[in-house]
Amino acid sequence: MCCDIGRRYFCTITTTSRNLFNTRCYSTLSLEKMLNNLPFFACGKIVSGFGRGSKDLGIPTANFPLDVVKSLPEAINPGVYYGWANVDDGPVYKMVMSIGWNPFYDNKEKSMETHILHKFDGDLYGSLLKVCIAGYLRPEENFKSLDDLIARIKQDIADAEELLETNETNRQLQYHDYFTTNSNCSLNNLRNGKN
User: Fold this and answer.
1) pLDDT at position 37, please?
2) 43 and 130 in contact (C-beta within 8 Å)?
3) How far is CA 68 from CA 72, 108, 109, 117, 158, in A?
4) One of 32, 74, 109, 113 is an active-site residue; which one?
């Protein structure tokens, strides 16, 4: 179930299996803080992750280095986000991003794992990844099985595609100057869209 807060969608109740629901209610203040940080722009060189995205899930991800992850504003809660991404100043594509510890895999380090909705030839390690986080889909959650996790990721992808297509504000972020500016990526490039 999603609720429309301002011009963003925040999911607070998610289905984890046929009849079980995971409810995470963020306070209005927490949602407002998160909203005030979106859209959020980040960039960094793509680093190798755990190798699960492609191998276990069939859903490859581009991972940010730890210094970018640690530079996220505190108001950006762990969860699944959607937005836009490009690699090496190329075309801008839709993306879904997991931010957090991925409880199914019991990660010890927080990560930012971006699934770009485009098929690339070869790996992207060392390439420059720029993202615009446009909105929030749901909190991170654990799953009973790998199949449940994969099904939820596929639903996240479908939800992100719909929100990026049907919301004019989200759609326009694809053409933001951030993606057309050639820049050397530094931590100074992390910013919210309000600056």
Assistant:
1) 82
2) yes
3) 7, 16, 13, 22, 27
4) 113
Tokens standing for 154?
């596929």
Copy the structure tokens of residue 60.
């490859």
Q: Does the annotation count 165 as an active-site position?
A: no
- CA–CA gap between residue 51 and residue 55 (Å, rounded): 6
Confidence at 180, pLDDT banded by 50, 70, 90:
confident
Instruction: Report yes or no: 96 and 82 within 8 Å, Cβ to Cβ.
Output: yes
- Cβ–Cβ contacts within 10 Å for residue 159, how many? 19
The total of other beta-carbon atoms located within 10 Å of residue 21's CB is 10
Write down the pTM of the prediction: 0.80
Please give the radius of gyration of the chain, using alpha carbons only, rounded to the nearest integer. Answer: 16
Query: In this model, does residue 61 exceed pLDDT 60?
Result: yes
Q: What is the largest CA-CA distance in the chain?
A: 48
Name the amino acid, one letter, at 35: L
Lowest mean pLDDT among 43-47, 51-55, 106-110: 51-55
Return the sign of the alpha-carbon dihedral for residues 81, 135, 8, 188: positive
Interatomic CA distance for residues 51 and 49, integer angstroms: 6
